[in-house]
Amino acid sequence: MAKLIYLMNASLDAYVADAQGSFSWIVPTEEWISYINALCSSCGTFLYGRRMYEAMVYWETDYAAHNHQAFHLDFARQWQAAEKIVYSRTLAEPRSARTRIEREFDTDAVRRLKADAGRDITIQGPELAAQALRAGLVDEVHLLILPVIVGGGKRCFPGDLRLGLELVEERAFRNGVVAMRYAVHS
């Protein structure tokens, strides 16, 4: 059975975007992206909400117009090769290959996906992840905590969630980012 992994970048005060909706304070480095590439190498499917998908679809074609370093191109290749499921009531059609749109998050369908998948699955975006966390579908939480306090915005976790976690791995990067991987206890 595949693991469902909530993977997210967050500020030290646990926001994924600031009060203006910006995440421009996220400035990835080679060390950090190489770590994410290694994490995602075991994943065959990415689950997204609409807003997260619209940010990530950059890696389908738009990235090619920029002079990216090899570690970014490695991520682009992984992203393009993965299956993507986007949960949206408003998107008419996907803007990337290997992508399908679902109108509702169906916990039973995600359970079946986990049971049938040969590779792990990531879920990204706090609103979508909140549904999976509440349903007990998430097996691991991977947080990359940035050395910044943004003071408000979109929270990484819903305010009404209580969840037991066990620290499995931690790693500090030279730029002050700390990666933490937790196993979720039921």
TrEMBL record:
List this protein's GO terms for biological process: riboflavin biosynthetic process
- Supply the InterPro entries for this chain: DHFR-like_dom_sf, RibDG_C, Riboflavin_Biosynth_HTPR
Bacterial bifunctional deaminase-reductase C-terminal domain spans which residues?
Answer: 3-178
Task: Recall the GO molecular function terms of this protein's record.
Answer: 5-amino-6-(5-phosphoribosylamino)uracil reductase activity
Q: What is this protein called?
A: Dihydrofolate reductase family protein
Q: Which organism is it from?
A: Phototrophicus methaneseepsis
